[in-house]
Amino acid sequence: MIVMKFGGTSTQDAHAVENVVKIVKARLDRKPIVVISAIAQATNMLERAGRLAADGRTGDARSALLALFERHIAMTDALIKDQQRCQNLRKTISASLGELEEMIKGLAILRELTPRALDTIYSYGELLSSRIVAVALEENGVASRWIDTREFMVTDDRYNSASPDMELLETRLPEVIMPLIEQRTVPVTQGFIGVTRSGHRTTMGRESSDYSASVIGSVLGVEDIQIWTDVDGILTSDPTVVASPKKVKTLSFAEAFDLSYFGAKVLHPKTILPAVERNVPIHVYNSRRSELSGSLITSMNSSGTPLVKSIAYKRNMAILAVVPKHRYGQYIFWDHVYNILTKHGASASLTASSEYGLSIVLDQSHELPSIVQGLKEVGSVDLEEGKGIISMVGSNIRAVPKFMERLFRSVSEYPVAAISFGASPSSLCIVVDDHSVPGAVTSLHREFFDTVESDEFEELRHLPS
Ligand code: ADP
Ligand code: ASP
Ligand code: MG
Asked: For the whole model, what pTM was predicted?
């Protein structure tokens, strides 16, 4: 068995879905379970419609919905030639639009979009795209069954960032999936969305379909979790920032974890842990060029030689420097600081400490003023916004020849505000000004990859569009 997850660009239009059908059809002997994201931009458009409605702009909200639904209808018409199937699918799509239009009226009256309502609205993106894929498979002679994650992905009620109930999943998922696999029917389900015990839709965080795929694959103990996206695999850096990235052939779980944790969008940061727990390999493939070998993430650390494998970055970060007011025992000080962060649901992306102070790097989206207020009880606090973290990732990078010298030479034009090295054996992070991130990443990439000689990397034959 394998899990195949297709992202938004892989289902963005009829042509892309035809491609998904071909890719799945070519792998039927591996018993695929298909996990689908909303079509490209659908989640953003649904959110926009919800926010417009809550602002009382029902007309604009409706127009946003109509534009999105037209795309689904156009895909259906282009993909499904069987009249009955096409009509049924069109009916489902229209019924969903009707439900959303009712919700929009409600939001406009209440003038608020709660996290719970937002999750219900979001869920339509994945519900519809997965239906289209399931029917398109049938249309092409592949026995498939659309499954609502409601049947197995029970989560807690932390709307917008829910976590699955793993115990329930362990029993329900095989009950739902295995009979289909035995009948040689391809289950098609949704990423990103779940449901509470009381039946409310939840989502597990933006871009979390990769995580859904990993959870499903790990619980079922599949041979391979396949993430199908729009690039050739894991690249040496973000192709929207560096001009000529290379493909990384293999990564260890630890390397992939650090990369995703420090911002490489290609994998959601929660994806790696479930796979590590059950030791299930992950492949990242390009759905536009399915003949390519992709990147493989496993427990093995293939490269004996120390090597920088990839550079990730996170923008819009803030540094909070806290110096204790009194000479507390260090553990009291740290305890207080972490309690404040926990109270605000904030996790530090990175910390650097000395005896008299602690620098914490946080995402700027956290409630910084309240956090600062809380920290002022124990110390003086200095807040600097507009920062970015750049992470160099690779097992045993400390042993890369002249690593530090090359690193600092590459970023010499950019003031470095903090460094974290040692917390993870597979990464080193520096903090620079946010606006310096693209320049610094490009310069580091040039230094570590332009002339690198290692069969761990492959030149890209087609640069990502
Ligand atoms: P999907 O919709 O398939 O989930 P995403 O847009 O979430 O796709 O992730 C793929 C994108 O991640 C790529 O198009 C690329 O721009 C970006 N990306 C950032 N860093 C990397 C990296 N190191 N390797 C590959 N892609 C990366
Ligand atoms: N459709 C969801 C989002 O855009 C989930 C995903 O794409 O992984 O956030
Ligand atoms: Mg993604």
From this structure: 0.95
